[in-house]
Amino acid sequence: KQEVTQIPAALSVPEGENLVLNCSFTDSAIYNLQWFRQDPGKGLTSLLLIQSSQREQTSGRLNASLDKSSGRSTLYIAASQPGDSATYLCAVGDAGNMLTFGGGTRLMVKP
Amino acid sequence: ETGVTQSPTHLIKTRGQQVTLRCSSQSGHNTVSWYQQALGQGPQFIFQYYREEENGRGNFPPRFSGLQFPNYSSELNVNALELDDSALYLCASSLGLAGVSLDTQYFGPGTRLTVL
């Protein structure tokens, strides 16, 4: 059974810092890994999708890496802003793109 | 905006009742998935429908059931509600392409269900 873990569970940083969120998964037989953002009480917004054959994806200030063999992914956020405050979720997709999620990292960026 | 809508936004029920939650997917999206998110946790996969047929199910009992319609709408039905069913219920739609590793899922805003 696939299990996804995210560390840390919560993070508070001052504005402007670069930061790294971690995600690990137990079964390396994944088809993709996705990072989502969730604002309080809201749905999920897709940030980045990394196919299993890829090593990383970039979008603006976000960079996500994938090391499938070691079961790890990181989300790097450059020059953090207060608007980045949210919960960040990683999820791994199987052959049917059914997602297994981690518990999330709650990020607060202080002005 | 993802183009995926859900109704109602909030719902309060009592134990033992039945509830139907609705989702409207993006036009052309043949796949819809439903997830349950308890407070402070990540979403858990309930089931997935592709072209009106269930094609995958997570670790949820049979009292959780669903339907998908040709007009890209879908329903999640929960019978015999329990207190632990209180959660945010999310639906997500995707194209359902071959080579699914590229198939981004678009999530709706969710329905907050409270069971008293």
Q: What's the oligomerization state? A: heterodimer
Number of strands of chain B: 11
Would you identify the regions of chain B where 5 or more consecutive residues have pLDDT less than 50? none
Report the C-alpha radius of gyration of chain A, rounded: 13 Å
SSE pattern of chain B: EEEEEEEEEEE
The portion of residues forming beta strands of chain B comes to over 45%
Mean pLDDT over the residues of chain A: 94
What is the helix content of chain B?
under 10%
Strand content of chain A: over 45%
Termini gap of chain A: 41 Å
Largest sheet of chain A: 6 strands, mixed
**Regions of chain A with pLDDT < 50 over 5+ consecutive residues?**
none
Kindly report how far apart the N and C termini of chain B lie. Answer: 32 Å
Per DSSP, the total helix count of chain A is 0
**How would you sum up the global shape of chain B?**
globular
Principal-axis shape of chain A equals globular
Describe the structure.
Chain A is mainly beta. In chain A, strands 2, 4, 5, 9, 10 and 11 form a 6-stranded mixed beta sheet that branches. In chain A, strands 1-3-8-7-6 form a 5-stranded antiparallel beta sheet, with no helix packed on it. In chain B, 0% of the residues lie in helices and 50% in strands. Chain B contains no helices and 11 strands. Chain B is globular and about 40 Å long. Chain B starts with a strand and ends with a strand. In chain B, 33% of the residues are buried. The model of chain B has no long low-confidence stretch (mean pLDDT 92). The chains are: A mainly beta (111), B mainly beta (116). The interface between A and B is medium-sized, with 29 and 32 residues.
